[in-house]
Amino acid sequence: MSDDWKPSTQAVHGGARRSQYGELSEAIFLTQGFVYDSAEAAEARFVEAGPDEFIYARYGNPTVAMFEDRIAMLEGAEDAFATASGMAAVSGALMAMLKAGDHVVASRALFGSCLYVLEEILTRYGVEVTFVDGTDLAQWEGAIRAGTRVVFFESISNPTLEVIDIEAVSKLAHKVGATVLVDNVFATPVFSRAFEQGADVVIYSATKHIDGQGRALGGVILGSREFIRKTVEPYMKHTGGSMSPFTAWVMLKGLETMSLRVNAQADSALALAEAFASHPKLARVIYPGHAGHSQHGLVARQMAKGGTVLSIDIQGGQAAAFRFLNALRVAKISNNLGDAKTIATHPATTTHQRLPQDQKDALGITPGLVRISVGIEDIADLKADMLGALEQV
Asked: What top-level class would CATH report for the domain 7-254?
């Protein structure tokens, strides 16, 4: 393997391990355990396993290791630990780091399950959590204090697509020695440079753009080798949140085409945002890559493109949003994102329905808001589908 390879080449070849058969496609090692040549060899491996030695699939597996190595190369991280889902990555990274008495500062605009982990689970075990408006650097500065252990945010929030200044927040966190943990799903591994901008730990739901075809749940935690192997691995291998070998193989196949898919999706998302601009039935069009986004300058500095997701706020509230959704023919109503198929979601009644109304109001999750994860269909068909559905509102 070469460190000089460009990301698209790394996505196809990075981290490959081949058996004695010289297979072209990565092998799936569907095994829980491994055989040792002797009792002494087993003893030695349990003391310290080598870089290509394995003990049990919950601890590591050759197929999973290939995925971990490849995504780490793409992201510019020293190491990675693959998990059973995106939320296993979020909760695992936080739980592995934190203990009673620790302080976390987090952006308020988070996915519902992330809020549950922070508000319900961590606080149950004595962790103090402070929420801030992630776009307001003064609030970050006021909340981060000596003793703050972790700073956590989504680089682009779900579903209102607020963008956090990774570099600026990281500088504030590092002044007090806090670890910066970034959920980077909406930025994608293709457009992100989070580690360069100061992040210490980056998390992806591999379910989204990495698989990208609606097949499997998965997640990954990326960071320094010491953090991954000394902090994350002991927690994850004992609590059981590791990725299965078959899922890792699916994710390896997803990585091969991820750049092609994500670039096409981002281009189509921008085209849709431009088609929606000034539409009389829309109160808002939110797309980070569009010049009309309030943080477009930050997006241009922080990301290569604006991502694959846009949100529209349909005038007329929930009834109007439902009429729009029910009129769609190409796009599908679902709650996933990053898929090759275009997906439309009504966050207020699905992904964020558990939030109290005052929190929805504060986050801008209105009854008319529809999140659109743009797929790889022909842009002419997508425009006709979306604009035609708006005529039914």
From this structure: alpha beta
